[in-house]
Every structure is written in C-alpha cells, then in structure tokens.
Amino acid sequence: MALGKLRKEETLVLRKKLIGQSCRLFYSEDPVKIVKARGQFLFDENGKRYLDCISNVQHVGHCHPSITKAASAQMDLLNTNARFLHDNIVMYADRLAATLPEKLCVFYFVNSGSEANDLALRLAHQYTQHEDVIVLDHAYHGHLMSLIDISPYKFRKLAGQKEWVHVAPLPDTYRGLYREDHPNPGQAYADTVKDLIEEVHRDGRKISAFFAESLPSVGGQIILPQGYSTKVAEYVRSAGGVFVADEVQTGFGRVGSHFWAFQLQGQGFCPDIVTMGKPMGNGHPLACVATTEEIAGAFTANGVEYFNTFGGNPVSCAIGLAVLDVIEEEDLKGNATRVGAHLKDLLIKLQPQHQIIGDVRLLSRDLNGTSHGLMRRVTNDDNHGSWLQTESRGLLPQKQQRWW
C-alpha cells in the first residue's frame, strides 16, 4: 500500500480498528490528517496550512534542512549500536557536557524521556541503596510502570500511591500553600520537603531521591520560587538521597535565558542527575541521562552491564549534534526570550478583558526572559480549573526564517 494514498475516512477507520483506543487523537471528534510539515506549519491532505502550537518535540522547526541532511548523511554511511567505537557518541556527549555544570560529566543515551527517567531511578537506587522517592504533587514523569508509580497525575487514576512514594506540595505561588505575598516562599516550600523527610525517617524508611521537573508542566507550568531547589537538595542530600532534575520538557534553551531550566535557581545549584529528552532530536527518538562520576561509578560497580540497543547510535547522535548547531547558529535561546516577552505583553493586554485569565507567567526580566507564558483559567473556588499553555520556543520566530 503506497504511503499517503488513503482517504482521511479510510485512515480513520483503519486507526480505530488497528490502534489501541487509549492512544487518543488530537481533535478526536474531527481529527486533522497531517501529511506534511515545514518550520512551524503543518499541512493536511488538502494542503491546508496550520500553525503548530501543539507539537512539543520539533524544537528547531519541522523538517529543518540541517537536521534532515545530518540524519540522511549518517544513515547513508552507518547506523549501528553503541557497542561499536564511534566518534558521534563521544562528540555529542562532549557538546552536552559543555552546557552543564562540570560535575555532570557522565552520560547514558536512551530513546525517550520515559527511558531516561527510569534509568535515573535505577542510578539513584544503586548509588544510595535506598528505595523511597519524593515527588511533587500533580507530577508526570513518563509511561513506564516505574514512572507511573512516581507520577501522582497518573497513579491516582490507577492503583494508587505506593508506600515508597511520598508526595510534596507543588511550590505554586499562585494557588499553593505559600503565595507571592509570602516573604520567602522558596524556603517555606522547601521546608515542606524537610518535614516529609522527617516523617519518612520516623517510619523507618530512607530517601533515595527527590525527583522533580525543573518547571513542573502537567502541574500547571509552575515557575519554582527562588531558593527552592537549593534548599531541597540540601535536605535530600543530608538524608542520603540525590536530587534528580527532569528536563525532558524544559531543556535545550527553551527557557530563553539559560540552556537548562534548573539553572534558573542560580549558579550555586546543581542536581545530581539530569534527564533530557523531547527536544533533543527534533522529533527523532533521542534522550539522555547526565550524572556524576560517583553515581555512575556506583552503577558500574553492581557488575551488571547497561546496554541500550538504539541509545546513542550514530544517526541519533548526528541528529543531536545538528540540533545543537541550529540552536546556536539561529540564536533560538534569544528567540525564545524575545517571543516569550512579546507573548506576555499580548496576554497581559487580554487579561483585564477576560475573567477566565487568572495568571500570565513569564520569568522575570531580571533573568532575561523565558520561553514560557501561561494563561490560567480560574474557577469560583480558586482551587481547580483548566489551563491554556503557550510556549514560545524556537518553533515560533517573530520573523519567518528563510529556510521554510
């Protein structure tokens, strides 16, 4: 059967028949059939163009010629697993290391954010020899069983909370326990983690890791209060655990002012493990875990080889290198800052006109801006409600770039 030759109705019938119904479509009542993409635009089977404000992996734009050229050239030359010595994996690791604090210098390449977060859990458990994990309320870290167990967003709909999982309050200064008018919300929210650790110890258990997104996404695009991560890391390390920063959604310059969202907490803060994924390969399955020599050494010392069939293969690493090149050459961090500020200005103008908009978020201009703006819908009880998200990444340039 030739690709792209089915009518939309035929495609939909076959999808309903052959694909699991839990795998849902966007706009399920009348799905859009997408057959082509360029830059920030998607095209349906009739050639109609859509501005893509949904896709969250095409970091430098759909079908960027630099990415497709790098992928095609390497695929035409060699693609094999990482057990063969090859330049690409070490060159890519070296480029990533240059973006991170010096102590995060050992890399494990995988294929998805879920794989990366699962491996981070294994690293933490092996290094600390402890089991328990602290996560933030409403968190989502992936679809593997190990990650559903540490994702309140999922486990509350399924088997419930495991005894080794502990949920800390989301440090939300808009709706949370401590709000913008609190003199030190970062310290106050960090102290809730300290209290939780003490409770865990009273029960005779020990902390392996604190696991959190650097900007909680499913929880509502939360900007962590200053000082929060530094104090939490202090409390967790004192308890024998490690701090895991989940950058699967937020890394690679999306916050504009920094390459990694955890860097927004200040130069003095460094996680023990960082996971990354979605934007790494611009749509190609590529993810990674970065950690310290000490943690990696403990993982090696268990005597069990870690092998990932496709993780770190030459094609994936060639694509990853090309993505880094485009981020730098096209100043996409700067673009995220500029577009983020532009969106914030527009949304603030809308805010007085619509009661449905409760909060518009952009990181402080003192931090040179960010890619995250957010409109939040407020219900009468001010405790629940849905939210509309708009993230200004390199995908949405203020001036259309020439290559598309």
From TrEMBL:
Keywords: Lyase, Pyridoxal phosphate. GO terms for cellular component: mitochondrion. Its cofactor is pyridoxal 5'-phosphate. It comes from the Eukaryota. The keyword Transferase does not apply. InterPro entries: Aminotrans_3, Aminotrans_3_PPA_site, PyrdxlP-dep_Trfase, PyrdxlP-dep_Trfase_major, PyrdxlP-dep_Trfase_small. One of its GO terms (molecular function) is pyridoxal phosphate binding. PROSITE patterns: AA_TRANSFER_CLASS_3. Signal peptide: none annotated. Belongs to the class-III pyridoxal-phosphate-dependent aminotransferase family. This is 5-phosphohydroxy-L-lysine phospho-lyase isoform X4. It comes from Notothenia coriiceps (black rockcod). The gene is phykpl.
